[in-house]
TrEMBL record:
Name of this chain's protein: Mannitol dehydrogenase
Cited InterPro entries: 6-PGluconate_DH-like_C_sf (IPR008927), 6PGD_dom2 (IPR013328), Mannitol_DH (IPR000669), Mannitol_DH_C (IPR013118), Mannitol_DH_N (IPR013131), NAD(P)-bd_dom_sf (IPR036291)
Reactions catalysed according to its record: D-mannitol 1-phosphate + NAD(+) = beta-D-fructose 6-phosphate + NADH + H(+)
One cellular component term from this protein's GO annotations in UniProt: cytosol
UniProt keyword Cell inner membrane present: no
Protein origin, superkingdom: Bacteria
Molecular functions per Gene Ontology: mannitol-1-phosphate 5-dehydrogenase activity; tagaturonate reductase activity
One Gene Ontology biological process: D-galacturonate catabolic process
Record-linked NCBIfam families: PRK03643.1
UniProt keyword terms in alphabetical order: NAD, Oxidoreductase
Residue ranges annotated for the Mannitol dehydrogenase N-terminal domain, each copy included: 16-247
The organism of origin for this protein: Enterococcus saccharolyticus 30_1
Domain Mannitol dehydrogenase C-terminal: 268-443
Length: 471
């Protein structure tokens, strides 16, 4: 079989981006977007990839001449989508553990003025053990500080820095880490000034499911494509990138929307983060306990089940969307996209995997909206049913969660059944707030779950409006 290197011999584009991270997500998300811009003549640039850790994919990428295939699989406008495209936007990969001086030399290249990163949620962290003399230091922020200092010493303009790590306010947190290294390494005040005035740290929010290498059907896909690719990446068609850009400088450097990409430049991404947490992650958390108790196994199964489809539709329309501070039409459109993504036949999202640490997930994803309803003297029945399902699941089955969480449920099991729900709802250690105000409704639902089962509870909520709470 042919190698991927025999399939195309692209003209290399000017290096314009330094990219920390060569894993599945960045290759299926960011490099794919560069490809779409390049095809339309909007960017005409490539990325130099820096391996954040010592063991990475750099050697394998080099063997394939930095080429690989992105396979999009999913639904778009309710129709199945399957496309394959060879991506040509990586110019080279540097391993700073072996090529430290080559890495620092990137600071000398004027056109390389954009930095993107995805080093996992744990990647943006300050490590006081990192020294200025380390070649390289261990942490990503320390490596970046060294590069920034080299750029400053070369008297060059600064960078536009866009982290993609899945943490809140990622740009601000990365900048804070770098400022800590400035202090730790006793770098001069003029560098602090240059860092502040010449560089832009953008907070961003990314959204695309990228399952990665398709192990179960790799040989089949190689045969279909007519070449061997050891780095192919599968991803869903949907993608979203929200970038804070109050000065409108980033959108000029990266004209992503002009390439018909779902990229939003905004002054404040907070509403979009809320939208994702509450409308994408929230329904996942809401469906899991009730669906598991009904014997379902995957998100797709939930979305193909008439009872649960109705539950999810009404959860979106009656209880989630009305509580969010974005244009309602925009939220409704986003919700429809999410439901289509949930039905993706190519992504088998196991409910058990989503169920991990369900208490903290409920606290982050659904509890804020439950409390907003409460402030308006409203009772959202489906969010409360999800809470009841979670409590019942934890009381009656072995769940995976933090030891302290499981210990409280173990205490509850020792109580009389009539006291268990009130005990759990009153635990501020679990929820950050006393939820005893919902004891009546949640207790009734737990009894219904125990006597008649999850499906009966879900069915009883059909067409159930959000209730005005009794005074």
């Amino acid at each position: 079989m042919k190698k991927i290197t025999e399939m195309t011999h692209p003209t290399r584009k000017s290096e314009k981006v330094i990219q920390f991270g060569e894993g599945n997500f960045m290759r299926g998300f960011f490099n794919w977007q560069l490809q779409q811009m390049n095809k339309q003549g909007l960017f005409n640039g490539s990325a130099v990839v820096v391996q954040p850790i010592q063991q990475g994919l750099g050697s394998l990428l080099a063997e394939q001449n930095h080429l690989y295939t992105v396979i999009l699989e999913g639904l778009a406008d309710s129709r199945p989508v399957q496309t394959s495209e060879i991506i040509t936007t990586i110019s080279r990969v540097l391993n700073p553990y072996e090529q430290w001086q080559d890495y620092l030399a990137l600071a000398e290249i004027d056109d390389l003025d954009i930095i993107v990163s995805n080093t996992t949620e744990a990647g943006i962290a300050f490590d006081p053990q990192d020294k200025r003399t380390d070649m390289p230091p261990k942490s990503f922020p320390a490596k970046l500080t060294a590069l920034l200092y080299q750029r400053y010493q070369a008297d060059k303009s600064g960078y536009t820095i866009i982290p993609c790590e899945l943490i809140d306010r990622n740009g601000e947190k990365l900048k804070a880490c770098i400022q800590q290294y400035c202090s730790l390494w006793q770098l001069e005040d003029s560098f602090h000034t240059w860092l502040e005035n010449e560089n832009t740290f953008c907070c961003s929010l990314v959204d695309r499911i990228v399952p990665g290498y398709p192990y179960s059907k790799a040989e089949e896909l190689n045969q279909l494509h007519g070449y061997e690719d050891r780095l192919m990446v599968t991803a869903e068609p949907f993608m979203l990138w929200v970038i804070e850009d109050p000065s409108h400088t980033v959108s000029q450097k990266l004209p992503l929307p002009a390439a018909s990409l779902n990229v939003i430049f905004t002054k404040d991404l907070t509403p979009y983060r809320e939208r994702k947490v509450h409308l994408l992650n929230g329904p996942h958390t809401a469906m899991v306990p009730l669906a598991l108790l009904a014997g379902l196994a995957t998100v797709e199964e939930v979305m193909l089940d008439p009872d649960f489809t109705c539950f999810i539709d009404e959860l979106f329309n009656e209880e989630l969307i009305p509580m969010l501070d974005l244009p309602q039409e925009e939220l409704i459109q986003y919700a429809e996209q999410i439901k289509e993504r949930f039905k993706n036949p190519y992504v088998h999202h196991q409910l058990q995997s989503i169920a991990l640490n369900s208490v903290s997930k409920f606290k982050a994803r659904l509890l804020p909206l439950l409390l907003r309803h409460h402030q308006q003297q409203l009772l959202p029945p489906r969010i409360l049913a999800s809470l009841a399902g979670l409590i019942y699941l934890y009381l009656t089955t072995d769940c995976q969660d933090d030891e302290a969480v499981l210990a409280l449920f173990e205490k509850a099991r020792a109580l009389d059944s009539s006291e268990q729900v009130s005990f759990i709802l009153g635990q501020e250690k679990l929820w950050g707030v006393d939820l005893s105000v919902f004891n009546k409704e949640v207790s009734q639902m737990v009894v219904l779950l125990s006597n008649k089962g999850s499906r009966h509870l879900v069915d009883s909520l059909k067409n159930e409006p959000t209730q005005k709470k009794a005074e």
